[in-house]
Structure formats: C-alpha cells, structure tokens
Amino acid sequence: GVTHKGFGHDWPVVKARCIVRTSPRNLLDFLMDSSQLKRYNKMSQGRENVLVLQEGVDTPAEDSTYGFSGDVRIMRALNKPKLFPKSIEMVSLWYTKAIADAPNAYMTVNRSVWENATGTPKSSNRIRSEMLLGVNLIRPCPEGCEFTTITHVFAPGVPEMLAKRMAPTSAANMMREIQNIFA
C-alpha cells in the first residue's frame, strides 16, 4: 500500500522480484519488444508505440536532442482480463536507460499520459486505466539477472476488491512466465 492519502492511495501497489536465467540486456530487449508481450502477459491484447521521442537505451545525453540519455516513448497497451466485459487501455510514457553507476543494470520508469483533458479512450469498448507508477529494475546476478517490478495502477471500472486480489497474482504469473521463457 501507500502511506499517503493522495490520489490512488487505496489501490494496490505490487512489488515482485525473481531471478531470470539470461543477461540483463537480453531481458531488457525482450521486455521492450512489444511483439513478445503476449508470451508473458496472458491478458494482453497487444502494445504499440504511439510516439518514439528518443530511441535507444544506450543513447548518451550528448547525442540526445533533449539532453538526457536513454530511450523515451509513449506506448498504448490493451489488456482483457477474463470475465471482464471491456478491454483495459493504458497509454504510458516509458523512459528506459542504463544505470550509470551499476554496470549492466537497467531501469524503466513509466507513468500514464493523456491525449486529451478527460483521459477518455477513443473507443467506448475500453476502460482507461492509469499507471500511477511503474518501475522495472534489471541487474546482473550470478544466476543471470535479478528482475524487480513495482506497479501502482488505478483502474476505474474495475472493482477495487478485485484489483487488490488480482494484482499480486498477475505479477507473480508474469514473473513465472518470463522465467519459463528463459529456462
């Protein structure tokens, strides 16, 4: 949970961690490849780049138009949980970069963005959810890499009790699927 009483404080925050038997860079490239998403997220209906602001995790700040290193893009993801009447849409700004003081380690941070003042999806068959905070940390370890993810999502239209029950299970299932892919 979240100790403050701000927006979304009563929605679940989930932290999950696992060891994946591959290199940190290989896992990062796999996670950033939208065509691979359905392999580890069984609810996924796909993810697409809406806008690529800066491409390349290894882009140095001095080569950047914006003055910072890393990869920056806006992505749209659709998920369809079982027994749920509509798809859940999320549009997020993703920032991914190598961690300067941790060799072969990477971090992705994402946060929802809106294309209009109301944050309503273009299709009425969808419910717009909001990524309040998403963080992925991938760092080397003797067995391959340690993958840690933290998510805090606000999903209007999803019963809060259901979200609190599903969020930890979904995170654990995702971790197991990724481990199985690299087993």
Tell me what the structure shows.
The chain is of the alpha+beta class and 183 residues long. Helices cover 19% and strands 40% of the residues. The chain has 3 helices and 8 strands; from the N terminus they run βααβββββββα. Strands 1, 2, 3, 4, 5, 6, 7 and 8 form an 8-stranded mixed beta sheet that branches. The protein is globular. The two termini are 32 Å apart. The model has no long low-confidence stretch (mean pLDDT 88).
Spell out the key features of this protein.
alpha+beta, 183 residues, globular, 8-stranded mixed β-sheet, 19% helix
- The residue-averaged pLDDT reads 88
What is the number of helical segments per DSSP (H or I, 4+ residues)? 3
Per DSSP, what share of the residues sits in E-state strands of 2 or more residues? 35-45%
| Estimated radius of gyration | 17 Å
Instruction: Classify the oligomer.
Output: single chain
General shape: globular
Strand and helix order: EHHEEEEEEEH
How many runs of DSSP E, i.e. beta strands? Answer: 8
Query: How is the main sheet built?
Result: 8 strands, mixed
Low-confidence stretches: none
Percent of residues in helices comes to 10-25%
Report, as a whole number of angstroms, the end-to-end distance.
Answer: 32 Å
Structural class: alpha+beta
